[in-house]
Amino acid sequence: MKKRVLELFILVIFSFCAQTNAQKLSPEKIKVQLEGYKNDIRGPYKIIQWFCKDGTIRGAKDPCLDTVGGIQHATYKDAVVALGKSNHIYLGQILAYTDKSDFWDDSKNHSRLKQYQLGKYLAHIDDGWVNRKGQYYRGAIQIEDEEQWGIDFYKWLLSKDEILEKNYFLVLQSLKDIPHKGDDDLSQRMRAESKVLSDQYGRFMDLRVKIHSNPEPSDIEKTMAFVNTNASKLTAAQSKKFQALIQTMQQFHQPVDVKGIAVKAKRLSITSPVKKNIQNYINNNAIGIEHNAFVSSSAELLLSIRKQITKEKSASQRMLLLDIANQLQGIVFKTSLQWQPETLKEQLEKVYALTMASAGSGSIELWEWGQVQPILNPASSDKITLGQLNQKLQTARSVVEWSAAMVKATYQDVVNEYSTFEPKAYSFIDDRIRSSIALQLGKAVGDLGVFIAKESAISNSVFSLSNQSSFRGLNPGYAFGELVVISENLDAVEVSSSKIYIFERAPSDLKPVAGIATVNEGNLVSHVQLLARNLGIPNAALSDENLNDLKAFNGKEVFYAVSNRGTVILKEASKMTADEKALFTKKVRNEEKILVPVKNLELKQSKIVNLREVDAKDSGKLCGPKAANLGQLKAMFPDKVIEGFVIPFGIFRAHMDQPMSGYNKSYWNFLNDTFEAAASKRKQGISEKEVENYQLRQLEILRAAIKTMPLQADFLKEIETSFQTIFGKPLGSVPVFLRSDTNMEDLKDFTGAGLNLTIFNAVIKEKILQGIRDVWASPYSERSFKWRQTYLLNPENVFPSILVIPSVDVDYSGVLITKGIVSGNDSDLTIAFSRGAGGAVDGQAAESYTIKADGSYQLIAPARESYHNTLPLTGGTGRKIATFEKPILNAKNIEDIITLSTSIRKTLAKKTKSDYKGAYDVELGFKNNELWLFQIRPFVENKHALGSAYLQSITPSINLNQEIALSTKL
Question: Which residues form the Pyruvate phosphate dikinase AMP/ATP-binding domain (predicted)?
């Protein structure tokens, strides 16, 4: 008893401190709080009170006067309230206790609403979660009050057209969780109940996986048989939970009908814009309709509701239509399981119907549906070419990825926050994806992929996994090493150059690896993707399901290859062929590394240079290619390139000749002594790993020293003068980018994209001056050094220059590659754009297109990032919430990009007197629809990977003109 009193006293003191100081709590401290609530008979609640309509508050046994009225519910513990203030984390939310606007939480990307949904999920799968004992705290929550609040909330929320236009998916999802006298989501309940049982009784895991991935009526009998077989081993509580699961499964798998929709349809007003459509749907689907027609008509109505809902002006009627939409999703989800196509034509019809339903449910946006609908629309002819069929497959596969990405973009921020103190939160996103039409669409697309693979002799070979058609190669290459599967979205993963990594999303600062595959590939032209392409690192995209399946092979030695046409091979090392083993027994010749040219360096240039005074010929001499090429662009497109100046190699070198504090030598001598000592250690037979560790320790010392290096007086004066004369304002009043620009970038066979530092939007004088030191130090970071050490013969001869340009707070920015990366066609263009500044380059899920030579274009992927960077005049970066209802690029933007690319192709090589005939990688942005150019460089691909005899041998030859009858049996 004394111990309990002491614990409560400590909790009260802790609560008081947290509330008064409002300091953000660490995940560890939040974990401690959660454990306390789980074991507290009141959970996160303090006391129950009456809240009267006249504003008075009464005790639990002293109700409001009948003439006044009111509601009864619990109040939160002080520590719970404090956690909301300090961390914006809200536990055990009582809706009747919450302001509607606070709950919608618009400024925090609707965090409180999402937390409510996540909290309900955790309660389902973890025996009440923070309310493990508090769920029996009588009177804490009154369901009738919660339902009335839900109705009032949606009347308030749905009166705004903008909400439905921008947040359709979130609103539709929320209706499944917020009480409002709507329908229960049986599929969510079924998955939650089966997860709880598999966690408690591991032998049920196989059946649980089946129920989650491919629910069928036969699962009921299998579960009953499982219970009978294991009856003697189950506790009474487990047996009770199994019976509840069986009951839920029986309800879920009941024959689908439209009675529930008919009941709601009677409540629709005669002026409802879709009432006639709904009534026709009810009449046509009343009895005996085929599964294919039922799914198709349900998908059509689902899409019609989404398109027409803002024409309905009554918020109550809108809520009713959204409830009908959720019922239609359930019908499509369940009925599509029973639709088993027999011919290719029927399979294409199923894919089309499920894609339409995805658009109707908000998993993809309406403009995205407009892009894919003409491609997926089933052909009216009797035959189809293999090329057309492949295009349909790639498009449908993309829709599956976009649908999953919509769930992640909507909920990932909240899930990431909660996962730091509650690991079970991470499975929420998977649960939402599996409850969506994307699960059934993915299966239908997988079946189509299997058919096409047989017809075209293209087949992935990834262990013995199911649904292998979800794998698609991005960059050709081959690798051998340990397989590491990382399912969490980690931004700072320690990686090894000898291992192969499967990521949910690759870190933007990825260090050298042997091979990679990602669920969220980001985009085709991010720095990570360009490095992989340049260096011949095999790189593929896969589905969430594939990633989960690959966990079984985590830690195994594997062989991994991606062919030139994107087929993927991943198998255990023991199954490698003799030819595959030979790829790694050949000694890698030193000559295959690249030599950084240094003989042309002009290190005597110790003055800042105006951007207008440099051009392409200065690359590798005066400065790096960023500045040289941007200066060339400034001459060619003076109105499209901002002003700027260059801090050349010579200024860096002069500073490196200064004495290094604490050492009896200069910075430059310290650097060279490090590499000389490393060479000596190699001669002594010391292992390469030990030599590398020595170099990294020494370079860390050097890097730290450069960051505190004194800047010479003459240089400081020049900086001041350059700001005033070139930018027209004094240093400290103009926000600028400081871009590292080394002589190791854009070599013939090595791009170096994104390896060194860029300082974003610095404005304060001290930050700019410190930024110069930081940029000079960045080539000696572990990541930059490891990439150079692997691919360069003389990694010590790296000289950084710095390009200084004013910040442009662009509306959206991205990358142009003057060739078709997906198509492989040199006459095509590839573009990828993100909202705000820098997102596409850093690997965000960007809006990407292939633009054909005739000016037509095809959407590769839409943007799926909830936040984007802004560049405020005060410096630093801001964050802005993004929605996806409109494309980033408009038709004029694309026309401007085409015009620019034509000019670059025709004139750049001529202007620079270069014999380069390859593609270019261009960074650009738009501000108020005006195009700005920020960088141009050669687009470097790995010729060894593209031309490898082995990769050619696993690349099938496909006759894309081969015709296939749509009546062909699957």
Answer: 622-943
pLDDT tens figures, 665-715: 999 999 999 989 998 999 999 998 899 899 999 999 999 999 999 999 999
Hey, what amino acid is at 80? V
State the CATH class of domain 593-807.
alpha beta
HSE toward the beta carbon, residue 17, CA cutoff 13 A: 9
Place of tokens 């539709």: 172
**CATH 2.40.37.20 fits domain 461-586:** no
CB 772 within 8 A of CB 738: yes
Q: How many Cβ atoms from other residues are within 10 Å of residue 435's Cβ?
A: 22
User: What are the residue ranges spanned by the domains of the chain?
Assistant: 2-182, 188-252, 253-339, 340-458, 461-586, 593-807, 808-942
- Look up the CATH number of domain 808-942: 3.30.470.20
* Spatial CB neighbours of 104, under 8 Å, sequence gap ≥ 6: 110, 112, 113, 157
Asked if residue 11 lies in contact with residue 36, where contact means CB atoms within 8 angstroms, the answer is yes
Query: How many C-beta atoms lie closer than 10 Å to residue 959's C-beta?
Result: 11
Please, which pLDDT band fits residue 947 given cuts at 50, 70 and 90?
A: low
**CA-to-CA distance for 402 and 796, rounded, in angstroms?**
44
Structure tokens at 490: 């980690």
pTM of this prediction? 0.82
- Cα–Cα distances in angstroms (integers) from residue 595 to residues 49, 240, 270, in the given order: 77, 71, 77
Distance CA 482, CA 559 (A): 9
Query: For tokens 């909330």, what's the residue?
Result: 153
Identity of the highest mean pLDDT range in 225-234, 362-371, 528-537, 783-792: 362-371
Q: Dmax over Cα atoms in the chain, in whole Å?
A: 95
| Cβ count within 10 A of residue 940 | 22
Q: Average pLDDT in the 868-877 region?
A: 89
Tokens linked to 360: 């109707």
